[in-house]
Amino acid sequence: MASSHLLCNHHLFYPSSKSFPKTSFSSFAPHGSASIHPKVQFRRNSVVKATQRKLEVVYDPDERINKLANEVDKDAPLSRLTLFSPCKINVFLRITNKREDGYHDLASLFHAISLGDIIKFSLSPSKTKDRLSTNVTGVPLDDRNLIIKALNLYRKKTGSDNFFWIHLDKKVPTGAGLGGGSSNAATALWAANLFNGSPATEKELQEWSSEIGSDIPFFFSHGAAYCTGRGEVVQDISPPLPSDLPMVLIKPQEACPTAEVYKHFRLDLASKVDPLTLLEKISTHGISQNVCINDLEAPAFQVLPSLKRLKQRIIAASRGEYDAVLMSGSGSTIVGIGSPDPPQFVYDEDDYRDVFLSEANFITREANEWYREPASATATCKPSEISRNME
């Protein structure tokens, strides 16, 4: 029998100095401890039934935080920094070739979205080691983490002797096909460069980043890019989709291991549509189901059959509410574009009690600035679900 569940709906406000004289975050300590400001306010909003509720958390704008990266005086010494680390979706993803080295070439429209992590950096007195902490379990804190790899890479390329305390406030689940770890790495490279007075250009950071991950270079685009090769060849494009186009992300607890998905991929069964044709159609006519092709869907559905059923149910239940329903990357997130609301069955059925839900929209960034978190970012989850998705 379906049971009701408490939903936690976090509306996180991180306004810039243009909106308020002060901004807000939980406090930062070297070992990664975080505390919520005592003035946090809770309001109840009905969801669908009287037995279902969302909790809205509003962070008091008077709470002090580290300076936002986009407002840093580059001539002043920098000791602390807080950055937004957005994730991405693949609006379409075509696999175009299998190379002799065993890797596959792709052609994909990547786009940054408003769901993301918060990373706090503080200069460490240590000259030998970075220290990373996080709010969830299951995330490696040593040099297996792309953040640490990125900082090591920056020191190797520049000769910098800066080491850091880093706290990762994780909101993007892993194994989701959203590039959360790649974004964290790009954000760490950007931060390290700021701490050193920005000696490296954006292009150099982008080129260096491909050494540790093929998705990382995308985040040095301006938020919308046509990516080819393994993803490391990034062509900035004018954003083809409006920033006010809403979407909902639905990720089951199960992840799709990328290596397993590629093992099940068959090039002869992939779409034959020219990816540039897809890009042109999206740029001209916007989102529709027939342009949101992902060649990794079929093998991902073999690895995780329940993911195929989830996508089919979302399409059937939406009754045209979404312009398109697609899987991002290698899975396991299903994205409904055109509405921020998930289908009712996600709330009603026990089989979906552990799904991760988040509203989002498309975002971009300005040249020489990092991504800004939207004034209001909404993440909806069931209790402990973010931690469960990290394990």
UniProtKB/TrEMBL annotation:
Which catalysed reactions does the entry list for this protein? 4-CDP-2-C-methyl-D-erythritol + ATP = 4-CDP-2-C-methyl-D-erythritol 2-phosphate + ADP + H(+)
Q: What is its EC number?
A: 2.7.1.148
Recorded superkingdom: Eukaryota
Q: What class of enzyme is it?
A: transferase
What are the entry keywords? ATP-binding, Chloroplast, Isoprene biosynthesis, Kinase, Nucleotide-binding, Plastid, Transferase, Transit peptide
GO CC annotation terms, alphabetical: chloroplast
Listed SUPFAM superfamilies: GHMP Kinase, C-terminal domain, Ribosomal protein S5 domain 2-like
Q: Which GO terms describe its molecular function?
A: 4-(cytidine 5'-diphospho)-2-C-methyl-D-erythritol kinase activity; ATP binding
Which compartments does it reside in? Plastid, Chloroplast
Metabolic or biological pathway: Isoprenoid biosynthesis; isopentenyl diphosphate biosynthesis via DXP pathway; isopentenyl diphosphate from 1-deoxy-D-xylulose 5-phosphate: step 3/6
Would I find Zinc among this entry's keywords? Answer: no
One of this protein's GO BP terms?
terpenoid biosynthetic process
Q: Which InterPro entries match?
A: GHMP_kinase_C_sf, GHMP_kinase_N_dom, IspE, Ribosomal_Su5_D2-typ_SF, Ribsml_uS5_D2-typ_fold_subgr
- List the Gene3D superfamilies: 3.30.230.10, GHMP kinase, C-terminal domain (3.30.70.890)
All copies of the GHMP kinase N-terminal domain together span 145-221
Q: Which family does the entry's similarity section mention?
A: Belongs to the GHMP kinase family. IspE subfamily.
The protein depicted here goes by the name 4-(cytidine 5'-diphospho)-2-C-methyl-D-erythritol kinase
Q: Which organism is it from?
A: Rubroshorea leprosula
